Amino acid sequence: MMARLTILFVAGAALAGAAFLRNDLHSVRRDLGLAPRWVERTGGSAAEDLGARWVVLSSAALGVLRPLAIDFLWLRAAFLQADGSFFEAEALSRLITRLEPRLPDVWAFVAHNLAYNIPPSFPPRERYTWVLRGLRLLRDEGLVFNPRSAAIHFQLAFTYRHKIGLDLDEAGRFYRAELADTFEAGNGEPPADQALLEAWRLEPDRVKRLEAKYGAVLDFRVAESHALYWAERGLELAGPDVERWRMNLLRGEVEGACWQLFNGGRPIKAPGGILRAFLPDLRFAGAVEELLDARAGRGAPDSDELRAEFWRRRVLYVFLFEGAEPARASLARAEAFLRTGGAALEDILAASILAAGGERPPLEVISGLLDASVLLEIVGESSLSTGFRALANLRYESLGEEAGGRIEGPFEALFRAAVLRRAAAWRADARTRSLLERSRLLTEVLELAGPEPKVSLPPPGDLLFELEVLDPLHPDNAPSAPLSPGREAIPPR
Amino acid sequence: MTPSAARAIAGSAFAETSRQPAFALVILFTLLSYALSPSIAMFALGEDLALLKDFGLSTALVAGLLVVSLGASSVVGRDLELGTAGVLLSRPVSRHAFLLGKVLGVCAAATMAFSIFTVALFLAAREGPAIESHGRTRWPAAAVELAAILLAAVIAGIYSRRSARPFRPAVIKMSCVTLLGAFLAVSILDPDPRHPSGFDSNLLKGALLALLAVYVLASVASLLAVLLGRGAFLGTILVFLAGLVLGEERPVAFGLVPDLQLFWVGEVFYARNLEVPWSYVAGAGAYAAACSTACVAAAAFFLERRELP
Predict the structure, then answer these.
(1) Residue A98 burial class via C-beta count within 10 angstroms: exposed 0-12, middle 13-18, buried 19 and up
(2) What ipTM does this complex have?
(3) Residues 6+ positions from A378 with CB-CB distance below 8 Å
(4) A61 interaction partners in chain B (CB closer than 8 Å)
(5) N or C: which end of chain B has fewer CB within 10 A?
(6) What is the distance in angstroms between the Cα of A31 and the nearest Cα belonging to chain B?
(7) How distant is the Cα of A381 from the closest Cα of chain B, in angstroms?
(8) Confidence band for A480, pLDDT divided at 50, 70 and 90
(9) Do A341 and A360 touch, CB atoms closer than 8 A?
């Protein structure tokens, strides 16, 4: 009896000792970063916890079967994707990330594949869901297992800035429209919805810190605001042992996001349509100026060219948004970088217009600027519309000095011709007719007595800032098949 | 309980475990997987070597699990079920000595297997996955391992012929020596530039921690063998899976399941400039000792109450 009691006592004491040691050892593991990643999470569903536990199990208990499974899944997923079985390929790709959860480059590769390589197989309006899948994989899963990974933060920022923010994909305008829709309240303003920010893993405190740093409220309708957030987050969280080139990539994303925000950080929605034009946001001019100065301070080889380009654009944007006098003040500051030898504002702007217009004939450039003015007028951006008209007038006035550039009729007649051209289509549609009637300037121009101007304006071509999408009758603005996030499309076979 | 009786039983349990065909098969399969591992650790996007070390340790852990669960269910469970334990215990041998000897014997066999695994894993990690498809491999693990095992087989053949001892356990024992010798020879002839000290200390610590996990599993297997007989094999595998999955955050009902996550440091191979401290290995050793003591004590308690045929 005594022997049995002794045995029980020994077993109890050993168990107590084990429990004591266990807590200590887990604490050491957390300090070393050896603890399974889900321990670092706050919240998370039971399914997510189960998924994370499976990761530990697959890592420690599969032995040599794991690399064999990884090899097979990579090859099979590539084959399925080439065969057009995108959903199956995606499922296998997710399984791969579960078998290699601690490799940030694997997450980045799989997400890049989802966001970049699969969408072109779908019609433009059905591609956004794949871009979102890539983003979600990184944001909601990859960062859970690699919370400080520079590679995952970079891929997130890059996908927002490059895939959604730029037009390398013909569906870029739809991506931007979908993202803006998600973050736009009914009145066309960005919402102050904390739940939405949390759903997109945008920490409100960090957002506030960034807004203080850049001196501007981040508008998450714009993809580059997301890019800036994730790149800055990556720079802040990446540990000291991260390779320098990865940190440089993140810094490059910050610079790229600021540059794109400066050039197109202000969305304007087409009335009654789904698309948006993204106009320059001068709130980021200061941030870009600082970044370019810092770049020059580091001795980057193309710094002078970039700074000259920045100031050329800044003068143009200030002229468009604020008028001639503020633009002259900007030009005075830009002199050190543009080295114009004291050229007049008009010359600088004319040079900018020429650069933007490329090889197009002068009348076509003027036609484009006036068309932009008309479109901005109908969406209620009267001040900016005036800026475009002033720019068109500037170009018109400068034509006398160019050989063969003379245009018949006064400038007002040209503007009236531009209005009439748009009005012809808008009057035929009830929706756009009411918009037309709401604009005082356009109504006045249309009601002007007298014959139609004799000048015939050439088609405006591509407008600055892709303003043509503001036309409610633009074919891509038809709300017939707007894509809802999460909607699945049937892949072509 | 007499130490000499426990020692004798341990020796016999070690011999019995290492004579099992399954024991040799597990070692052979593990060696084969290590020999091929530089070729199968692909698709890790630059982290192939980390993946190799990670799954190499995992393979050793699973192989160790198989060794101890098969060994304990055989040398403890079968003895109790078939009544051979009763014959032994009819002599002046206490049940505690019987149990402790069996556990130590199984652990010794696992240690021998683990020493082979560790050296083979070091050889594979030394070779590493090919960086380029046309790169030349220096000292391929497969060739070195094969040469060491062939040498072990020749020596064991001569030894077993002269001493009339069984050939298979002799090859396994001799392989420990020849593999270690081969690793040392290769390290001296062609030092690994990635590890000036000659080896990856994290890999050594990881292998030691995995061995400690295997000791815990051996004691769990012995406890289950007392309770379930040869069903201990399956039971130990379930405890292994539960011990890995439950981790730190676990329901109270599973509080008695050993926390095997503490012995798993696969994360360390993917981190840069991270070193597992020896103090952690020592703490894990103390935890393994406490868990093993609790299991063996519980097994002794149940063995005391058990009617033997």
Answers:
(1) middle
(2) 0.86
(3) A271, A422, A426, A432, A435, A436, A439, A442, A470, A472
(4) 58, 61-62, 240-241, 244
(5) C
(6) 11
(7) 50
(8) low
(9) no
